[in-house]
Amino acid sequence: xxxxxxxxxxxxxxxxxxxxxxxxxxxxxxxxxxxxxxxxxxxxxxxxxxxxxxxxxxxxxxxxxxxxxxxxxxxxxxxxxxxxxxxxxxxxxxxxxxxxxxxxxxxxxxxxxxxxxxxxxxxxxxxxxxxxxxxxxxxxxxxxxxxxxxxxxxxxxxxxxxxxxxxxxxxx
Length: 172
Prior knowledge:
The chain is of the alpha+beta class. Helix content is 16%, strand content 26%. It has three helices and eight strands. It has a three-stranded antiparallel β-sheet with strand order 1-6-7, with no helix packed on it. Strand 3 and strand 4 (67-76) form a beta hairpin. 11% of the residues are buried.
């Protein structure tokens, strides 16, 4: 029989619930692009996701109905990051420069990946030790996903609207 106390006890043993708002993203700048030598985006990332991982399967059928079995790794899916833009829109300018450094619009010659890929992007999930939704100095990292040699493949459009006075958000 289901008991609420058993449910709560289970999560209390496992440090409460993991909260979606307790995260940060740190992006190391690519080494081959001088214009992007220093930037700090961890305060601007409003939303992201922890990457998923897929395994390809094949049907194994010796007799009767086939059953799926693992065949090969399918790899990681692309992730989305949404950045809040500051008044001078330096985040938009930064990603425009980064995308142009990958494939310059003046000649369309693709650069070497070692020049434009970030050596490390780390997405960290923090525990519920903080009293607010933001990680603090007392928050502990409980999960971390590290992306190596990642780079932006698209930036989304940013709407302009006379009827709205909201904050710009840049989807990457």
